[in-house]
Amino acid sequence: MKKLYYFFCTSVVSLVFISNAFSQGATVAKTGPSNPLSAPKSTKTVSVENIEADVAEALSVIESNHVVGKKINYNDVFKSSIERMLQTLDPHSNYFDAKEFEQFRTDQSSRYFGIGATIGDLSDEKGNVIATYIKATFDGAPAHRAGLRYGDKIVEVNGTSMIGKSFSDVRNFLRGPRGTQAKLVIERYSTGKRETVDIIRDGVLQPSIAEAYMVRPGVGYIAMTGGFNQTTYAEFAQAMKTLKARGMKQLVLDLKNNGGGLVREAYRVANTFLESGQIVFTQKGRLDGTTEPYKADNISPERLPVVVLVNRNSASASEILAGALQDHDRALIVGENTFGKGLVQNPFVLDYGSMLLLTIAKYETPSGRLIQRDYSNGALYDYYTKGGVKDDGSEGKVEHGAESKTDSGRAVYSGGGINPDVELKPETITSEKARFQQKLFNPVFAFALDLTAGRVRGFENIKVDQPLVFDYDIKNTDFPVTEPLYQAFKTFATEKYKYTPSQIDREREFVERALRTELVTAAYGTTTSLQVSNEYDNQLKKAIELLPQAKQLALDAARAKASASKVQSLENR
């Protein structure tokens, strides 16, 4: 294994060194040949042993002559070498050094180690960071058990001042190994009093399902946007159970921005809706056991209508799930064309704690579609951006391959991800408008801090002085931004942050949404606050409208299946 590891670490170094040895501006060492270009061509056959020898010699020359000298970071050299080698094979094979591998395993376990709180920094009218505050805690997390709440200013962590530090810097101080101490000095916003809080860091869940709630009477919504990790199916099964108990008869499953992960978890979710014997996906590779179809084994699948939301960042395992439900006409797919990643990676653990994530097979949907988009030109930028956008801001047309048929005979195509049954792009704004809105977050947050502390005259009833209530479905009557409240914010933003009234009025919808999100966060937590954003989501609204069409699609597929079974029965007589 060590020899293999050394080969992976070094083979590309020799290629990189040789290809750049005579780059413009290079000089020849005094001990070398007077004209390197006149050296005879090598006639030796390329082999692992020869590559190892060449790399060893290259490293020796680098150590002796490179301007960095003995300060070379060998981990960086080997890592970049292996990554460059893997990129010549496909876009998704990857190398993880020991530190990255440990983070990879942590991510797969759906958790991180820290105190378990959402934080946010606040800047003044000039853009200078004032401080970082607690926005919410997670149910059962160390920060929740310690009593931290919305508006608590983080003054110190383990003796180091956090005042003026950015959100990301403070976050790094709060995270750390399990069982270690985070000694916080916090200042309660409502009273101004400082307290010292000792917190022992622990595992904090990073769920696959960001939110699950009844978005309409009878309509459940599950945001499976956090990837497919070790807990995904368990989270999904619990969400389904909870929503059905609340009267769910129809489901919107949101896979937008789900980059994939463990395909076994995607299989188990698909198995919830497919009948025993129906193919979920097929894996085709060169290794034993990697070429076989994976079939559903559920003798009592869910029958409720399903709409699946996808976008350009839905990839890999999420595409397998969407493709399986689409091919069997079990769900209506709505949104944008998905990313197009249909390659199977398997981890190979190397010596010294590193790991190769190597492509070993390709996925096919039940109808025989290849999900993987083309990567033959080897240009990673083109691959990940689909060539970027045109001058007019529009995207290039997605190229499709061979045609296949769903169970009811609808045409679907290979090679470009999963094409939605109903294409609908999200509502967008200009980059200039987005930058302005980003700046507006500061007065919104500052005003929300005053509101939740009961400091705004005439709005003392908005004060949030009770512990967080988790797993809550918000109502229209929860923290509405009334006309008087909006006018109070406008006065605050113009006086404290020097905005003009017309600037605020042009962004009224954003202000109302952002302010209500902050208030819901203070009372019900970060997860529940996503429900506010969903009220403005045009794709979710359309998905709800299309649920009757999803129901009809499933009925058509059932009739087609019954008809095919009848024909097969007659042929077998």
What does this protein structure show overall?
The chain is α+β, with helices and mostly antiparallel strands and 573 residues long. The protein folds into four domains: 2-88, no CATH class; 114-205, Pdz3 Domain, CATH 2.30.42; 211-423, 2-enoyl-CoA Hydratase, Chain A, domain 1; 431-536, no CATH class. Helix content is 38%, strand content 19%. The protein has 17 helices and 21 strands. The chain has helices at residues 2-20, 48-65, 74-87, 98-108, 142-145, 167-174, 232-245, 263-271, 317-327, 380-385, 431-452, 483-496, 501-506, 508-524, 526-534, 538-545, 547-571; strands at residues 94-96, 111-114, 117-123, 129-137, 153-157, 160-161, 181-187, 194-200, 202-205, 211-216, 219-223, 250-254, 279-285, 292-295, 306-310, 332-335, 343-349, 355-364, 403-405, 411-413, 422-423. Strands 10-11-12-15-16-21 form a six-stranded mixed β-sheet, with helices on both faces. Strands 1, 13, 14, 17 and 18 form a five-stranded antiparallel β-sheet that branches. Helix 7 packs parallel to helix 8, helix 8 runs parallel beside helix 9 (317-327) and helix 14 (508-524) packs antiparallel against helix 15 (526-534). The chain is globular. The termini are far apart. Residues 1-34 and 387-394 have low confidence and may be disordered.
Summarize the structure.
The protein has 573 residues and is an alpha+beta fold. It has helices spanning 2-20, 48-65, 74-87, 98-108, 142-145, 167-174, 232-245, 263-271, 317-327, 380-385, 431-452, 483-496, 501-506, 508-524, 526-534, 538-545, 547-571; strands at 94-96, 111-114, 117-123, 129-137, 153-157, 160-161, 181-187, 194-200, 202-205, 211-216, 219-223, 250-254, 279-285, 292-295, 306-310, 332-335, 343-349, 355-364, 403-405, 411-413, 422-423.
